[in-house]
Amino acid sequence: MTISQPYFTTRICRYDTAALREAATLIRAGEPVAVPTETVYGLAADATDDLAVAAIFAAKGRPGFNPLIVHVADRGMAERIATLNRTADMLAKAFWPGPLTMVLPLRADSNIAPRVTAGLATIALRMPAHPAMLSLIRESGKPLAAPSANASGSISPTRAEHVLASLGGRVRMILDAGPTSEGLESTIVAPEEQRIRMLRPGSVTPEMLEKASGLPVVVAQQYVPMEAVEAPGQLESHYAPSKPLRLNAANAERDEYMIGFGLIACHYNLSPEADLREAASNLFAALHLADASTATRIAIASIPTDGIGMAINDRLRRAAA
Ligand code: TXA
Ligand code: MG
What we know:
The strands form 3 sheets. The protein has a 9-stranded mixed sheet with strand order 2-3-7-4-6-5-9-10-11, sandwiched between helices. By secondary structure, it is of the alpha/beta class. The chain is built from 10 helices and 15 strands. The chain binds threonylcarbamoyladenylate and magnesium ion.
Protein backbone atom coordinates (compact mmCIF):
# COMPACT_ATOMS: atom_id res chain seq x y z
CA MET A 1 0.00 0.00 0.00
CA THR A 2 1.62 3.24 -1.14
CA ILE A 3 -1.18 5.68 -0.30
CA SER A 4 -1.56 6.25 3.43
CA GLN A 5 -5.04 5.51 4.77
CA PRO A 6 -7.06 8.27 6.39
CA TYR A 7 -7.24 7.87 10.15
CA PHE A 8 -10.37 8.52 12.17
CA THR A 9 -11.24 8.49 15.82
CA THR A 10 -13.78 5.69 16.00
CA ARG A 11 -16.74 6.23 18.30
CA ILE A 12 -19.05 3.49 19.53
CA CYS A 13 -22.50 5.05 19.97
CA ARG A 14 -25.35 3.30 21.72
CA TYR A 15 -28.21 3.02 19.21
CA ASP A 16 -30.85 5.67 20.00
CA THR A 17 -32.66 8.48 18.18
CA ALA A 18 -29.78 10.97 18.41
CA ALA A 19 -27.17 8.41 17.29
CA LEU A 20 -29.40 7.33 14.41
CA ARG A 21 -29.81 10.91 13.23
CA GLU A 22 -26.06 11.46 13.34
CA ALA A 23 -25.40 8.21 11.48
CA ALA A 24 -27.86 9.23 8.75
CA THR A 25 -26.11 12.60 8.45
CA LEU A 26 -22.78 10.83 7.94
CA ILE A 27 -24.35 8.54 5.33
CA ARG A 28 -25.76 11.51 3.40
CA ALA A 29 -22.32 13.11 3.54
CA GLY A 30 -20.82 10.03 1.84
CA GLU A 31 -19.26 8.44 4.94
CA PRO A 32 -19.56 4.75 5.80
CA VAL A 33 -21.06 3.88 9.21
CA ALA A 34 -20.97 0.52 11.00
CA VAL A 35 -24.46 -0.65 11.88
CA PRO A 36 -25.94 -3.85 13.31
CA THR A 37 -28.22 -6.13 11.34
CA GLU A 38 -29.80 -9.34 12.62
CA THR A 39 -26.99 -11.36 10.99
CA VAL A 40 -23.69 -9.51 11.53
CA TYR A 41 -22.63 -5.85 11.80
CA GLY A 42 -22.37 -4.19 8.39
CA LEU A 43 -20.29 -1.27 7.12
CA ALA A 44 -22.98 0.78 5.38
CA ALA A 45 -22.77 3.59 2.84
CA ASP A 46 -25.04 5.21 0.24
CA ALA A 47 -25.26 2.65 -2.58
CA THR A 48 -25.92 5.41 -5.13
CA ASP A 49 -22.70 7.31 -4.31
CA ASP A 50 -19.65 5.80 -5.99
CA LEU A 51 -17.18 7.60 -3.69
CA ALA A 52 -19.02 6.50 -0.56
CA VAL A 53 -18.90 2.93 -1.85
CA ALA A 54 -15.20 3.31 -2.64
CA ALA A 55 -14.70 4.33 1.01
CA ILE A 56 -16.19 0.98 2.12
CA PHE A 57 -13.73 -0.95 -0.07
CA ALA A 58 -10.84 1.18 1.23
CA ALA A 59 -11.78 0.78 4.93
CA LYS A 60 -12.04 -3.01 4.59
CA GLY A 61 -9.13 -3.50 2.21
CA ARG A 62 -11.64 -5.40 0.08
CA PRO A 63 -10.73 -6.34 -3.51
CA GLY A 64 -12.79 -4.40 -6.04
CA PHE A 65 -13.97 -7.56 -7.82
CA ASN A 66 -16.04 -8.63 -4.79
CA PRO A 67 -19.49 -6.99 -5.06
CA LEU A 68 -21.57 -5.74 -2.12
CA ILE A 69 -25.07 -6.50 -0.85
CA VAL A 70 -27.51 -3.59 -1.04
CA HIS A 71 -29.99 -3.24 1.81
CA VAL A 72 -33.49 -1.86 1.26
CA ALA A 73 -36.24 -0.88 3.69
CA ASP A 74 -39.25 -1.84 1.61
CA ARG A 75 -40.41 -3.66 -1.47
CA GLY A 76 -40.73 -0.47 -3.57
CA MET A 77 -37.07 0.34 -3.01
CA ALA A 78 -36.11 -3.20 -4.09
CA GLU A 79 -38.18 -2.94 -7.27
CA ARG A 80 -36.58 0.37 -8.27
CA ILE A 81 -33.19 -1.38 -8.18
CA ALA A 82 -33.80 -4.90 -9.50
CA THR A 83 -36.28 -7.09 -11.33
CA LEU A 84 -38.02 -9.67 -9.16
CA ASN A 85 -39.29 -12.76 -10.98
CA ARG A 86 -42.10 -14.97 -9.62
CA THR A 87 -39.69 -16.99 -7.45
CA ALA A 88 -38.07 -13.86 -6.03
CA ASP A 89 -41.52 -12.50 -5.27
CA MET A 90 -42.45 -15.65 -3.30
CA LEU A 91 -39.19 -15.59 -1.37
CA ALA A 92 -39.48 -11.88 -0.59
CA LYS A 93 -42.99 -12.46 0.77
CA ALA A 94 -41.81 -15.38 2.89
CA PHE A 95 -38.45 -14.15 4.19
CA TRP A 96 -38.24 -10.34 4.00
CA PRO A 97 -37.46 -8.61 6.22
CA GLY A 98 -34.90 -11.20 7.25
CA PRO A 99 -31.57 -12.93 6.64
CA LEU A 100 -32.10 -13.77 2.95
CA THR A 101 -30.14 -12.08 0.14
CA MET A 102 -31.32 -12.51 -3.45
CA VAL A 103 -29.12 -12.07 -6.51
CA LEU A 104 -31.36 -10.40 -9.10
CA PRO A 105 -31.06 -8.71 -12.52
CA LEU A 106 -29.98 -5.08 -12.00
CA ARG A 107 -32.28 -2.50 -13.60
CA ALA A 108 -30.63 -0.17 -16.12
CA ASP A 109 -32.20 2.85 -14.36
CA SER A 110 -31.34 1.68 -10.82
CA ASN A 111 -28.98 4.58 -10.06
CA ILE A 112 -26.75 2.15 -8.11
CA ALA A 113 -23.04 3.05 -8.13
CA PRO A 114 -21.15 0.77 -10.56
CA ARG A 115 -18.59 -0.18 -7.91
CA VAL A 116 -21.30 -1.90 -5.82
CA THR A 117 -21.83 -4.69 -8.33
CA ALA A 118 -18.21 -4.90 -9.52
CA GLY A 119 -19.49 -4.71 -13.09
CA LEU A 120 -21.93 -7.65 -12.82
CA ALA A 121 -25.36 -7.46 -14.49
CA THR A 122 -26.90 -8.70 -11.25
CA ILE A 123 -27.22 -7.19 -7.78
CA ALA A 124 -27.49 -8.81 -4.36
CA LEU A 125 -30.47 -7.35 -2.44
CA ARG A 126 -31.64 -7.88 1.11
CA MET A 127 -34.33 -6.36 3.33
CA PRO A 128 -32.86 -6.72 6.82
CA ALA A 129 -35.00 -7.28 9.93
CA HIS A 130 -32.94 -5.24 12.42
CA PRO A 131 -34.58 -1.95 13.49
CA ALA A 132 -31.22 -0.09 13.49
CA MET A 133 -30.43 -0.93 9.85
CA LEU A 134 -34.04 -0.42 8.71
CA SER A 135 -34.21 2.97 10.46
CA LEU A 136 -30.87 4.04 8.99
CA ILE A 137 -32.09 3.27 5.46
CA ARG A 138 -35.31 5.21 6.09
CA GLU A 139 -33.65 8.15 7.87
CA SER A 140 -30.96 8.55 5.19
CA GLY A 141 -33.44 7.89 2.40
CA LYS A 142 -30.87 5.77 0.57
CA PRO A 143 -30.42 2.09 -0.27
CA LEU A 144 -27.35 1.08 1.73
CA ALA A 145 -24.50 -1.03 0.41
CA ALA A 146 -23.07 -2.96 3.35
CA PRO A 147 -20.56 -5.78 3.56
CA SER A 148 -19.73 -7.27 6.94
CA ALA A 149 -17.90 -4.66 9.05
CA ASN A 150 -14.52 -6.40 9.29
CA ALA A 151 -11.20 -6.12 7.51
CA SER A 152 -11.39 -8.19 4.31
CA GLY A 153 -10.73 -11.88 4.93
CA SER A 154 -11.22 -11.87 8.70
CA ILE A 155 -14.09 -13.06 10.88
CA SER A 156 -17.42 -11.22 10.65
CA PRO A 157 -18.40 -9.04 13.63
CA THR A 158 -21.41 -9.92 15.76
CA ARG A 159 -20.74 -7.21 18.37
CA ALA A 160 -19.69 -3.55 18.21
CA GLU A 161 -16.39 -4.44 19.95
CA HIS A 162 -15.55 -6.85 17.11
CA VAL A 163 -15.96 -3.98 14.63
CA LEU A 164 -13.75 -1.73 16.74
CA ALA A 165 -11.05 -4.42 16.97
CA SER A 166 -11.04 -4.93 13.18
CA LEU A 167 -11.81 -1.46 11.76
CA GLY A 168 -10.88 0.92 14.60
CA GLY A 169 -9.39 4.08 13.04
CA ARG A 170 -10.97 3.25 9.68
CA VAL A 171 -14.57 4.22 10.43
CA ARG A 172 -15.94 7.23 12.27
CA MET A 173 -18.94 5.68 13.93
CA ILE A 174 -20.19 2.30 15.12
CA LEU A 175 -23.87 2.09 16.07
CA ASP A 176 -24.05 -0.36 18.96
CA ALA A 177 -27.23 -2.34 19.55
CA GLY A 178 -25.61 -5.28 21.32
CA PRO A 179 -24.92 -8.78 19.96
CA THR A 180 -26.69 -9.78 16.73
CA SER A 181 -29.34 -12.48 16.96
CA GLU A 182 -28.53 -14.75 13.99
CA GLY A 183 -24.74 -14.64 14.19
CA LEU A 184 -24.04 -15.84 10.62
CA GLU A 185 -24.15 -13.84 7.40
CA SER A 186 -27.37 -14.04 5.37
CA THR A 187 -28.25 -16.92 3.09
CA ILE A 188 -27.58 -15.91 -0.54
CA VAL A 189 -29.73 -17.36 -3.33
CA ALA A 190 -30.28 -16.86 -7.04
CA PRO A 191 -34.04 -17.34 -7.60
CA GLU A 192 -34.82 -18.90 -11.00
CA GLU A 193 -38.21 -19.78 -12.51
CA GLN A 194 -37.87 -23.50 -11.86
CA ARG A 195 -35.32 -23.73 -9.07
CA ILE A 196 -33.40 -21.80 -6.44
CA ARG A 197 -29.64 -21.85 -6.47
CA MET A 198 -28.02 -21.41 -3.09
CA LEU A 199 -24.76 -19.44 -3.28
CA ARG A 200 -24.10 -19.13 0.44
CA PRO A 201 -25.76 -21.11 3.23
CA GLY A 202 -27.14 -19.22 6.22
CA SER A 203 -29.93 -19.36 8.75
CA VAL A 204 -32.58 -19.55 6.02
CA THR A 205 -32.06 -23.23 5.18
CA PRO A 206 -32.73 -25.16 1.94
CA GLU A 207 -35.68 -26.86 3.66
CA MET A 208 -37.23 -23.48 4.52
CA LEU A 209 -36.74 -22.23 0.94
CA GLU A 210 -38.27 -25.38 -0.55
CA LYS A 211 -41.24 -25.21 1.76
CA ALA A 212 -41.93 -21.53 0.98
CA SER A 213 -41.56 -21.83 -2.81
CA GLY A 214 -42.36 -25.41 -3.73
CA LEU A 215 -39.18 -25.33 -5.86
CA PRO A 216 -36.03 -27.44 -5.54
CA VAL A 217 -32.95 -25.84 -4.01
CA VAL A 218 -29.62 -26.68 -5.57
CA VAL A 219 -26.56 -25.90 -3.54
CA ALA A 220 -23.92 -24.22 -5.71
CA GLN A 221 -20.82 -26.28 -6.27
CA GLN A 222 -18.32 -25.71 -3.47
CA TYR A 223 -15.08 -25.62 -5.44
CA VAL A 224 -15.29 -23.49 -8.56
CA PRO A 225 -12.49 -21.87 -10.54
CA MET A 226 -11.92 -18.18 -9.84
CA GLU A 227 -13.31 -16.98 -13.22
CA ALA A 228 -16.55 -18.83 -12.56
CA VAL A 229 -17.06 -17.63 -9.01
CA GLU A 230 -20.59 -16.35 -8.73
CA ALA A 231 -20.48 -15.08 -5.17
CA PRO A 232 -16.85 -13.99 -5.21
CA GLY A 233 -16.83 -13.71 -1.42
CA GLN A 234 -17.21 -17.47 -1.39
CA LEU A 235 -13.52 -17.96 -2.08
CA GLU A 236 -12.22 -20.77 0.08
CA SER A 237 -10.00 -18.94 2.54
CA HIS A 238 -12.42 -16.48 4.09
CA TYR A 239 -13.78 -15.80 7.55
CA ALA A 240 -10.35 -16.79 8.82
CA PRO A 241 -9.05 -16.39 12.37
CA SER A 242 -5.33 -15.58 12.63
CA LYS A 243 -4.52 -18.99 14.19
CA PRO A 244 -4.74 -22.53 12.81
CA LEU A 245 -8.13 -24.10 13.40
CA ARG A 246 -8.63 -27.87 13.92
CA LEU A 247 -12.11 -29.20 13.16
CA ASN A 248 -14.02 -32.14 14.69
CA ALA A 249 -11.85 -32.16 17.83
CA ALA A 250 -12.80 -34.52 20.65
CA ASN A 251 -10.64 -32.66 23.17
CA ALA A 252 -8.07 -29.89 23.39
CA GLU A 253 -4.42 -30.63 22.74
CA ARG A 254 -1.63 -28.60 24.32
CA ASP A 255 -1.75 -24.89 23.37
CA GLU A 256 -5.24 -25.19 21.90
CA TYR A 257 -8.24 -23.04 22.76
CA MET A 258 -11.15 -25.49 22.70
CA ILE A 259 -14.58 -24.45 21.42
CA GLY A 260 -17.22 -26.98 22.44
CA PHE A 261 -20.75 -27.96 21.46
CA GLY A 262 -22.95 -30.06 23.75
CA LEU A 263 -21.53 -31.74 26.84
CA ILE A 264 -17.78 -31.46 26.43
CA ALA A 265 -14.81 -29.97 28.32
CA CYS A 266 -13.85 -26.69 26.65
CA HIS A 267 -12.88 -23.04 27.09
CA TYR A 268 -16.06 -21.77 25.45
CA ASN A 269 -19.24 -23.68 24.75
CA LEU A 270 -21.29 -22.70 21.67
CA SER A 271 -24.33 -24.39 23.16
CA PRO A 272 -24.19 -26.72 26.17
CA GLU A 273 -27.69 -27.92 25.20
CA ALA A 274 -26.48 -28.67 21.66
CA ASP A 275 -28.90 -26.16 20.09
CA LEU A 276 -27.73 -25.30 16.55
CA ARG A 277 -29.37 -21.84 16.42
CA GLU A 278 -27.70 -20.88 19.68
CA ALA A 279 -24.39 -22.23 18.36
CA ALA A 280 -24.73 -20.18 15.15
CA SER A 281 -25.36 -16.99 17.09
CA ASN A 282 -22.28 -17.61 19.30
CA LEU A 283 -19.89 -18.93 16.65
CA PHE A 284 -18.10 -15.75 15.55
CA ALA A 285 -17.86 -14.43 19.13
CA ALA A 286 -16.18 -17.73 20.06
CA LEU A 287 -13.71 -17.41 17.18
CA HIS A 288 -12.96 -13.81 18.17
CA LEU A 289 -12.31 -14.93 21.77
CA ALA A 290 -10.14 -17.83 20.67
CA ASP A 291 -8.18 -15.51 18.38
CA ALA A 292 -7.58 -13.05 21.25
CA SER A 293 -6.60 -15.79 23.75
CA THR A 294 -3.03 -16.76 24.63
CA ALA A 295 -3.45 -20.19 23.01
CA THR A 296 -1.54 -20.60 19.75
CA ARG A 297 -4.09 -22.83 18.06
CA ILE A 298 -7.86 -23.32 18.06
CA ALA A 299 -9.80 -26.59 18.17
CA ILE A 300 -13.54 -26.99 17.71
CA ALA A 301 -15.88 -29.88 18.42
CA SER A 302 -17.81 -31.47 15.57
CA ILE A 303 -21.14 -29.76 14.77
CA PRO A 304 -24.06 -31.64 13.16
CA THR A 305 -24.76 -30.65 9.53
CA ASP A 306 -28.57 -30.60 9.61
CA GLY A 307 -30.59 -27.35 9.39
CA ILE A 308 -28.44 -24.30 10.14
CA GLY A 309 -25.59 -26.73 10.92
CA MET A 310 -24.86 -26.66 7.17
CA ALA A 311 -24.06 -22.93 7.34
CA ILE A 312 -22.02 -23.34 10.54
CA ASN A 313 -19.91 -26.07 8.93
CA ASP A 314 -19.51 -23.98 5.76
CA ARG A 315 -18.01 -21.11 7.81
CA LEU A 316 -15.82 -23.51 9.83
CA ARG A 317 -14.45 -25.19 6.72
CA ARG A 318 -13.48 -21.77 5.34
CA ALA A 319 -12.03 -20.65 8.66
CA ALA A 320 -9.83 -23.77 8.69
CA ALA A 321 -8.84 -23.53 4.98
O1 TXA B 1 -25.72 -10.97 6.45
C1 TXA B 1 -25.14 -10.41 5.52
O2 TXA B 1 -25.31 -10.72 4.34
C2 TXA B 1 -24.18 -9.25 5.89
C3 TXA B 1 -25.01 -8.11 6.44
C4 TXA B 1 -24.20 -6.88 6.71
O3 TXA B 1 -26.09 -7.85 5.60
N1 TXA B 1 -23.42 -8.85 4.75
C5 TXA B 1 -22.45 -9.63 4.20
O4 TXA B 1 -21.78 -9.01 3.17
O5 TXA B 1 -22.19 -10.74 4.61
P1 TXA B 1 -20.40 -9.56 2.57
O6 TXA B 1 -19.94 -8.50 1.65
O7 TXA B 1 -19.51 -9.96 3.65
O8 TXA B 1 -20.85 -10.76 1.68
C6 TXA B 1 -21.58 -10.52 0.50
C7 TXA B 1 -21.48 -11.68 -0.43
C8 TXA B 1 -20.11 -11.82 -1.03
O9 TXA B 1 -19.76 -13.19 -1.01
C9 TXA B 1 -20.32 -11.32 -2.45
O10 TXA B 1 -19.43 -11.92 -3.35
C10 TXA B 1 -21.74 -11.74 -2.72
O11 TXA B 1 -22.39 -11.46 -1.50
N2 TXA B 1 -22.38 -10.95 -3.78
C11 TXA B 1 -22.64 -9.62 -3.81
N3 TXA B 1 -23.19 -9.25 -4.98
C12 TXA B 1 -23.30 -10.36 -5.72
C13 TXA B 1 -23.80 -10.66 -7.02
N4 TXA B 1 -24.31 -9.71 -7.83
N5 TXA B 1 -23.76 -11.94 -7.43
C14 TXA B 1 -23.26 -12.89 -6.64
N6 TXA B 1 -22.78 -12.69 -5.40
C15 TXA B 1 -22.79 -11.44 -4.95
MG1 MG C 1 -17.88 -10.55 4.75
